[in-house]
């Protein structure tokens, strides 16, 4: 959607405009502190950092887990290079943040807790849409740990967007308007692109549509974050369809602004760990007919408020 289209929308005080943007990495009043147990190399102003000096094959101490959690809250997505780990070790790392969830809608790896994405020209990817994982569940995932097993010679990057920065830069009138609103999330629109109708019908009783707040309060940082995404959010409760669609188009477009994003170029055995409560992501589908294989472990989350 272009800026010109947004500026002519019938939403009061709407529009993504050019010029300076508010780019706060930390919540109001928080101060940046040094890290003592590893190095941090920022990849953008507000989101994404490479962690240096941590071997994910080793068990985490309480101190290391606490410092990594602080880094996750501050940078929203952490990257670890050259991690020659097994699927078992990947799951062990993720369990430091909670119970692992399963996703019967996606292909499993060597465990029901591992989702395996193996893509080539015969099996096209459908993750190239901005989305937050499993928001169609009453308790969407806390976060995910993704490991690249096979990297194509070019392409296949993943992008993440900071939804707190996206919220901060909404016009004041829009922030006021969406406060207290709720939206419906449904797995069907996101999976209909690559699933047969019978599969969708069989799974609908397991995953009925749910409502979540349009603006989520992050349970650890307290920051307001946008919590709608074009893959699973269908409409805003209490608005007529035209008004809901128009407002959602504007909110979806906030994740598209480059200043709120980080783009990661994968290397073999690189790992990404992201906060699903504060981000959207987009897997760039530009590598066919080359092969890209990834394994993801998701950590169960809580009910958005």
Automatic annotation (TrEMBL):
Q: Which residues form the TauD/TfdA-like domain?
A: 40-296
Q: Which Pfam families match?
A: TauD (PF02668)
The residues the entry assigns to the signal sequence are none
The record's section on PANTHER family has: ALPHA-KETOGLUTARATE-DEPENDENT SULFONATE DIOXYGENASE (PTHR30468)
Q: Which InterPro entries match?
A: AtsK-like, TauD-like_sf, TauD/TfdA-like
- Please verify whether the record's keywords include Oxidoreductase: yes
**GO CC entries:** cytoplasm
The record lists the organism as Amycolatopsis pithecellobii
Entries under Gene3D superfamilies matching the protein = Clavaminate synthase-like
The biological processes this protein is annotated with in GO are: sulfur compound metabolic process
What is the name of this protein?
A: Taurine dioxygenase
Source domain of life = Bacteria
């Amino acid at each position: 959607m272009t800026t010109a289209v947004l500026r002519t929308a019938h939403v009061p005080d709407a529009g993504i405009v050019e010029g300076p943007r508010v780019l706060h990495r930390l919540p109001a009043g928080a101060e940046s502190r040094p890290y003592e147990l590893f190095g941090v190399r920022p990849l953008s102003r507000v989101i994404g950092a490479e962690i240096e000096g941590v071997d994910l094959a080793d068990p985490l101490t309480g101190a290391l887990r606490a410092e990594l959690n602080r880094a996750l809250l501050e940078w929203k997505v952490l990257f670890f290079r050259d991690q020659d780990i097994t699927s078992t070790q990947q799951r062990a790392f993720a369990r430091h943040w909670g119970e692992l969830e399963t996703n019967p809608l996606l292909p499993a790896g060597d465990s029901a807790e591992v989702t395996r994405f193996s893509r080539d020209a015969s099996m096209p990817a459908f993750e190239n849409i901005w989305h937050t994982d499993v928001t169609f569940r009453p308790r969407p995932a806390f976060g995910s740990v993704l490991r690249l097993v096979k990297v194509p010679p070019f392409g296949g990057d993943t992008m993440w967007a900071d939804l707190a920065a996206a919220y901060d830069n909404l016009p004041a009138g829009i922030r006021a308007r969406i406060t207290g609103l709720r939206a419906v999330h449904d797995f069907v629109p996101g999976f209909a692109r690559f699933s047969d109708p019978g599969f969708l019908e069989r799974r609908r009783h397991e995953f009925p549509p749910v409502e979540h707040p349009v603006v989520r309060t992050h349970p650890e940082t307290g920051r307001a974050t946008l919590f709608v995404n074009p893959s699973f959010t269908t409409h805003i409760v209490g608005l007529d369809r035209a008004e809901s669609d128009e407002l959602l188009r504007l909110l979806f477009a906030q994740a598209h602004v480059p200043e709120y994003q980080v783009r990661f170029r994968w290397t073999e055995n690189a790992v990404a760990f992201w906060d699903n409560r504060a981000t959207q992501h987009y897997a760039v589908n530009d590598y066919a007919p080359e092969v890209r294989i990834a394994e993801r472990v998701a950590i169960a989350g809580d009910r958005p408020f």
